[in-house]
Specification:
Layout (H helix, E strand, L loop, with lengths): L5 E3 L1 H8 L7 H17 L8 E4 L5 E2 L4 H5 L19 H30 L8 E5 L1 H4 L7 H8 L2 E4 L8 E7 L4 E4 L2 E4 L3 E12 H9 L3 H12 L2 E7 L22 H15 L3 E4 L2 H29 L22 H10 L6 H10 L3 H9 L3 H5 L2 E2 L10 E2 L2 H12 L9
Helix pairs in contact: 6-10, 8-9, 11-12, 13-15
Length: 416
C-alpha cells in the first residue's frame, strides 16, 4: 500500500520551508495538524507519508518530523510508538479473578491433603510407633513390627526416649511455609501425640509391687514423657499358678494375684494410669495396633462430636430405615417417598401416589401454599396388592395435616 500524498498550499509551504526554532505558533499548528492527520490515517505504518509541496520536489518527512512537531511520534492509541497498549479494566479484572480462582484451588487441595491425615482409612499411613531399640528386641515384642506394618503404620526406633520401656506415637505432617515474627520458616515434619504406653512384663513389675513403688514409678515415667501413660503388662495366663516341679525360678518370691490387682487399682487411683494385660505376643501386638488406630482417628472423631453437640438432638442416634443418597443425587426419590411414608396415617401406597404426583417437596409446598387442599385430597391411591379392591383417595383429613405441616410458620403447632 502506497503512502498517501498530501498537497500543501503555497502559504503553508512557505511556512514549511522557512521553519526555524523561532517559528510563530500559526506555522507550528499547521505542521501539527498535518502530523495528526497522517497518524490517524496510517497509525500502524512504520514509514511516515510523503508531503508534496507546490513548486518543490516531494520529500518524505521522517528525520525532520521531530523538529517540525517538537514531540515524539504518537500512534492512534495515544501511547508512544513501539510500546504495548494499556490493559483495559475488564482484562485486569479477568486476571485478578483468575488468580483468585487459582489460589482457591490451591487452598482446597491443601485442605484435602490435610484432611487425609485424619480421615479414617487414610490416617494410619501417617502414624509412627516409636520405641527404644532395646524394647523392640524383647521376645514378647516380636509380633509388633509385623502387625503394625500390616495396619499401615510405621515402626520407628527412637534411642533418645527418656525410658526404654515407653512407646510413643507421632504423626507425619505435610510441610508448608508459615510466618514467625517477620520470618518465614517450614512447619515441622512430625507432631507428637499426647499418649504413651509403658510396656513391661509381670516379672519386672513384681519388684515394684512388693515394695509398693509401682504408682511412684509410673508417675515418674508419666512426668518425663509429659503425656498420659497406659501400663501394658505382658503376663501369661498361668503366671500365678505355682509350678509342680522346682526350677531355677522356683525360689523367687512371687507376688500373689490379689497383691498385683491391688497395686494396679492403686496405680489407677493415684496417678490416673490405666492398665491393659496381654497374655500372648500377638495379643500384645494387636493391643498396640488398637491404640495406634484410636490415636490416629481421635481428631476426626473429636471434630464429629463437636458438630453433633451443636445440635439440640443427637442426629446419629437413630439410623433405622435410612435411605442412602450419593453425591450425584441418586436416591432422592426414595428419600422423599420415605419422608411421606413415616407420617402418621400414611402408608407405602399413599406415599407412592403422592410422590408420583409431586416429584419434590417443593412442588407439594407450592400447591399447599395456595390452599389447594382438595387437589391433594383427590389423589387416588391404588390397592394393587389386594385382589378385587377398589381405589381410594388420600382424603381431606390427611391433606389438611400435610397443609399444616408444610405451611406452618411456627414450630410449636400441634398436628392432631
Amino acid at each position: 500500500m502506497e503512502n498517501p500524498v498530501y498537497n500543501i498550499s503555497s502559504s503553508d509551504s512557505e511556512d514549511e520551508t522557512s521553519h526555524k526554532p523561532g517559528l510563530p505558533p500559526s506555522a507550528a499548528t499547521t505542521n501539527k495538524e498535518i502530523l495528526a492527520v497522517v497518524s490517524d490515517d496510517d497509525a500502524n505504518s512504520d514509514d511516515l507519508p510523503e508531503v508534496a509541496m507546490e513548486g518543490t520536489d516531494t520529500q518524505p518527512i521522517d528525520s525532520h518530523s521531530d523538529q517540525i512537531s517538537g514531540k515524539r511520534k504518537i500512534t492512534a492509541s495515544g501511547s508512544p510508538k513501539g510500546k504495548g497498549k494499556k490493559k483495559s479494566k475488564s482484562s485486569i479484572d479477568k486476571e485478578i479473578k483468575k488468580q483468585k480462582l487459582a489460589e482457591e484451588k490451591s487452598a482446597k487441595k491443601i485442605a484435602e491433603n490435610t484432611n487425609k491425615i485424619y480421615k479414617p482409612g487414610e490416617c494410619m499411613k501417617y502414624m509412627n510407633v516409636e520405641g527404644h531399640p532395646t524394647l523392640w528386641e524383647r521376645w514378647y515384642m516380636s509380633d509388633v513390627p509385623r502387625e503394625v506394618t500390616a495396619a499401615g503404620a510405621h515402626v520407628v526406633q527412637a534411642s533418645d526416649l527418656c525410658d526404654p520401656a515407653l512407646v510413643v506415637w507421632s504423626r507425619n505432617l505435610p510441610r508448608s511455609l508459615e510466618k514467625d515474627g517477620g520470618q518465614v520458616k517450614l512447619t515441622p515434619a512430625r507432631t507428637s501425640c499426647s499418649r504413651a504406653l509403658y510396656i513391661s512384663d509381670a516379672d519386672e513389675l513384681s519388684s515394684h509391687v512388693r515394695t509398693h513403688s509401682l504408682a511412684s514409678h509410673l508417675a515418674q515415667a508419666q512426668q518425663l514423657c509429659d503425656c498420659s501413660v497406659t501400663l501394658l503388662v505382658f503376663r501369661h495366663q498361668d503366671y500365678f499358678k505355682s509350678p509342680r516341679r522346682k526350677t531355677s525360678n522356683s525360689n523367687r518370691t512371687a507376688v500373689t494375684e490379689v497383691e498385683f490387682e491391688l497395686a494396679i487399682t492403686d496405680l489407677l487411683v493415684s496417678t490416673g494410669c490405666d492398665t491393659v494385660i496381654a497374655s500372648t505376643p500377638n495379643e500384645l501386638a494387636l493391643t498396640i495396633v488398637q491404640f495406634t488406630k484410636a490415636i490416629a482417628e481421635a481428631p476426626f472423631k473429636k471434630a464429629k462430636r463437636l458438630c453433633d453437640e451443636q445440635a439440640e438432638f443427637y442426629m446419629r442416634g437413630d439410623n433405622k430405615k435410612c435411605v442412602a443418597v450419593d453425591k450425584d443425587g441418586a436416591g432422592m426419590g426414595r428419600l422423599w417417598q420415605q419422608m411421606i411414608a413415616i407420617l402418621p396415617q400414611s402408608s407405602l401406597e399413599v406415599s407412592r401416589a403422592l410422590c408420583a404426583k409431586y416429584k419434590t417437596p417443593l412442588e407439594l409446598f407450592e400447591v399447599l401454599s395456595k390452599d389447594k387442599i382438595e387437589e391433594v385430597a383427590d389423589i387416588g391411591v391404588s390397592r394393587a396388592a389386594v385382589a378385587g379392591s377398589k381405589s381410594r383417595r388420600i382424603g381431606p383429613e390427611f391433606a389438611r395435616k400435610l397443609h399444616t405441616l408444610f405451611t406452618a410458620s411456627r414450630g410449636d403447632i400441634l398436628i392432631d
